Amino acid sequence: MSLMGQQPHSEAIGYSFPQSTNAPIKEHSFYPYTDNGGSTLGITGADFAILAGDTRSVAGYNINSRYAPKVFKIGGDDETGDGAHIILSVVGFAADGQALKERLDAVVKMYKYQHGKPMSVRACAQRLSTILYQKRFFPYYVHAILAGLDEEGKGALYSYDPVGSYEREQCRAAGSAASLIMPFLDNQVNFKNQYIPGSGEGHALESKKPEPLPRETVEQIVRDAFTSAVERHIEVGDGLQLMVITEKGIEEIYTPLKKD
Amino acid sequence: MNHYPEVWGRPRDDVYGSYNPSYLQTSGPKTHTQSPAVTGTSVIAVKFNGGVAIAADNLASYGSLARFTDVKRLRIFGDSAVVGFGGDVSDMQYIDRLLESIDIRENYSAHGNTLNAKNLHTYLSKVFYKRRSEFNPLWNHILVAGFDENKNPFLSSADLLGTTYSAPHLATGFGAHLAIPILRRLFPEETPIEKISKEEAEAALRECLKVLWYRDARSLDQYSVAVITSDGIEVKENQQIEAQSWAFAESIKGYGAQVN
Amino acid sequence: MTSIGTGYDLSNSVFSPDGRNFQVEYAAKAVENGGTAIGIRCKDGVVLAVEKTITSKLLKPGANNRIATVDRHVGIVTAGLVPDGRHFVSRARDEASSWRSVYKSPIPISALSNRLGSYVQAYTLYSSVRPFGVTAIVGGWDSEAELAVDGQVGSGPRSGSGGKVDGAQTGGPGLYMIEPSGLYWGYYGAATGKGRQAAKAELEKLDLSSGNLNLVDAVKEAARIIYVAHEDSKDKEFELEMSWISTLEGPTKGRHEAVPQQLLQEAERAAKRALEGDDEEEEEAKANEGEQMEE
C-alpha cells in the first residue's frame, strides 16, 4: 500500500467523532400560527354587556366551517356552561383561542372551589392579562374580549392584545373586520363626530355626550355592524352568535348571516 | 492501514476528497421536523342519517413520487370511531400506535373501551396542539368520524397546529378545494343530515374521490371507505374508482409541446 | 418449622446451611392460603378461573375482579396476596407495552413469562425486599396469523422477495405459572392456591396433552374444578370468575376477555350438578360402608 501512512493526520480526519461543524443553522420553516379569520365585538350598557362574534372559520380562501363559535361562557358547567357569569370572546388563531378559553375556564372554576365564591369580573380580567403575558415570547395569537357585570351591576368589558395589555372599555371590535366595525362603534356608541345641532359654530359646536344605551339599541347596533362587515370582508359571515349577560344570567342568540 | 480506526472502511480522502462533516452534526441546535416526507393526500367525510361515511385513497407520496400504493389511511379505534389521516405517514403511524396503546389501556378494565369519537378528537387535537407548541409538530390533518356521547353522528377535524372545526361534511388537503363544493351542492348545509341516506353519502364520497383522482396529481384510483353506524364500522379497503372517463382530456389543448 | 429460631429465615438473600431460602418458602405459604386459581390450555384457546372468596357481604357481587387483562391477548390470574398480585399485573402491563414500543408487535406469552419470572426472581436476591406473595398464572394466545406491525400501513410485496410464505405455522396458546421463587414452567393445566391439590388431580384426569378438549368444554371443566377444589376446603362463600382467550376465528378473536355471563352461568350450573352427583355417590358409598361395618 503506497498510500499507507502517507497522509498526515490532519484535523480533517474525525469522521464519526464529535467535532464542531460550520454547517449553517437550519432555518425553521414550521410556522406555528394561522389566521382563522372572523370578527368579534362587545358593547356594554348600564346593566348588561353584549359579546358577539360571527361563526365562520377560515383557512386562507377556504371556509372550514360555517358554525365555529368564538364566544364562550367561562366558569360554568362543563358541557352547557350553565351558571357562568363571565363570557369571553377570542378571535385570531382558533387553536390558541381554544387553549386560552380552556385555561381561563379552569382558573375561574378553581377560584370558586378554593375561595367558595365566584371570581369577580375584575379579578378575572387581571388574571387573563397575566395568562396572556406569561406567554409573552410565544404568544396566544388572539384578540380577547372579556365581559360580565361589575361589583355595582354595571356592564363590564375588557379588551386585550395578544400579550396581555388590557383596558376596560365601553365597546370594542376585534378580529379581521375590526377596522371596519370600530369606527362605526365610535360613532354610534361613543357618539364621536356627533354634535348637538345649533349649539354653536366651528369649534364652539358642542359634542353629543355619550351615555349608556338601552339593550334593544345595542343589539341593533351589533346586528348592523355585522351585516355591514359581512358585505365588505370575505372572512366574516355565515352566522352571528350573540351573548347577552344581565343580572338574570346569560342569554345566547344565534341569527344567520349571509353565507357568500 | 493507519492508526486511526475511525477512518477505516471510509472512502479515502486522497481519492474522494475530504468528507463534508456538516452531515454529521453532533452539536448545534436541536432540530425537529420542518416538513413532511412521505405524505397522504385528501381525506373526505360526510354525516348521514344515523352515521358518518369517510374515505381516503391508498397512496403515500414521496414528493411527486407515488411511493406506496397500498397504504391504509383510515384507522379504526375501538368499535365506533374512525380516524382518517392526511399528511405525514410516519406521524400517522406514530399516532396509530398511540391510539393502540390507549385502546389496550382502556381494555384493562372490565367495561372495555368507553371513549367515543368526540373524546378521541378532543384528545388528538390536544396532542397536535402540544406538539406544535413545542415546535415539533405531528404533520397531519385528520378527520375523526363516529358518535358523540348522545349517540349522534360526530365528525370533526384537527390539524398539525391544533386547529379544530366541525361541519356536516369535511375534507382535508386538496379535498377542501375539490370535494367540499361537490358535497355542499349535494347536501346543502341547511338540510338536516336526517335527510341523507347512507347510500347517498357513500356514493357522494366515491364521486368526490373520482374528481380528486382526475385533478389531484398526488392521488390514486384505489381507496378505502368506512361507514360508521350504530351497527358498527364497515370498512372497505382496496376499492377501485369505477367508470372513469378520460374523454374530456382530448379537448384539453395548449399544454406542453402541443400548440393547436 | 425447622427454620424458626435458626436466624436463617429472617432475611431475604440468605441461604440456610442446607441450601434453602426460607423467605421464599414463607411466600409460598402465603400463596397456599389464597383462593384457588387455575388455567387450562387447549388447542383452540386458554381458560383462566379463580375462586374469589367473599370476605364481606358488603362487597358488590361481580365487582373487584381478580383476573387482569395485561395486553389484548394476555390475561393473568394470581393466588396469594392480592396487592402483590396487583403490582405483579402492573409490571406485566409495563412489560407488554414496552415490548410493543420496541418491537411494534404483541409480546409472545413465553417472552412475557420469562420477563416476569426474572422480575419475581430479583425479589429473592436482596435483603431490602421481600419475595412476591403470589403465584401467577399467565394465559394468552400468540396470533396464528401473520400480524401487521403496529401502525403498519401497507401489506408488503404480493410475491417474490419479501413476499408471503404459504403454510407457515406460527402462534398458538400459551399457559405459564410463575412462583414466588421466580420459577416458571409452561403447563397444559396449572393450579395454585388453597385447593391446588384437588384441582391438579382433576386437571390430570382431563388428559390435556392429547388436545381433545375444546375451549367451551374447558370453560365448563374449569368451573367444575374450582367447585371441586372449593369443596375440599369447604369454608366461606365464593364467587367464580373466569376469562378466556380463543383463536382468531374463535369466540374472542384472539383477545383476552371475561367469559360471557351466559356461558359462565351455564358452566356454574353444570359444576354444581356434577358436584351434587358426586355427593350422592359418596353418601351412597358411606352408607354401604356403614352397612358393611355393622355386619
From TrEMBL, chain A:
Localization of this protein: Nucleus
Transmembrane domains' residue ranges: none
GO biological process entries: proteolysis involved in protein catabolic process
An MF annotation (GO) of this entry: hydrolase activity
Keywords: Cytoplasm, Hydrolase, Nucleus, Proteasome
InterPro entries per the UniProt record, alphabetical: Ntn_hydrolases_N, Proteasome_sua/b, Proteasome_suB-type
GO CC entries: cytoplasm; nucleus; proteasome core complex
UniProt entry tagged with the keyword Repeat: no
Pfam families: Proteasome (PF00227)
UniProt-recorded name of the protein: Nucleophile aminohydrolase
From TrEMBL, chain B:
Gene3D superfamilies linked to this entry: Glutamine Phosphoribosylpyrophosphate, subunit 1, domain 1
One of the Pfam families matching this protein, by short name: Proteasome
Chief localisation class: cytoplasm
GO cellular component: cytoplasm; nucleus; proteasome core complex, beta-subunit complex
Keyword Transmembrane (UniProt): no
Superkingdom assignment: Eukaryota
Compartment(s) of residence: Cytoplasm; Nucleus
UniProt record, GO biological process: proteolysis involved in protein catabolic process
InterPro entries per the UniProt record, alphabetical: Ntn_hydrolases_N (IPR029055), Proteasome_beta4 (IPR016295), Proteasome_bsu_CS (IPR016050), Proteasome_sua/b (IPR001353), Proteasome_suB-type (IPR023333)
Keywords: Cytoplasm, Nucleus, Proteasome
Family per record: Belongs to the peptidase T1B family.
Role: Non-catalytic component of the proteasome.
UniProt protein name: Proteasome subunit beta
Organism annotation: Aspergillus avenaceus
From TrEMBL, chain C:
GO term, biological process aspect, one: ubiquitin-dependent protein catabolic process
Keyword Hydrolase in annotation: yes
Domain of life: Eukaryota
UniProt GO MF annotations: hydrolase activity
Gene3D superfamilies named among the record's database cross-references: Glutamine Phosphoribosylpyrophosphate, subunit 1, domain 1
Basic and acidic residues biased stretches: 266-276
Chain ranges of the Proteasome alpha-type subunits domain: 8-30
Protein location: Cytoplasm; Nucleus
Region (Disordered): 251-295
GO CC annotations on file: cytoplasm; nucleus; proteasome core complex, alpha-subunit complex
Keyword set, alphabetical order: Cytoplasm, Hydrolase, Nucleus, Proteasome
Record's subunit section: The 26S proteasome consists of a 20S proteasome core and two 19S regulatory subunits.
Homology family: Belongs to the peptidase T1A family.
Protein name: Proteasome subunit alpha type
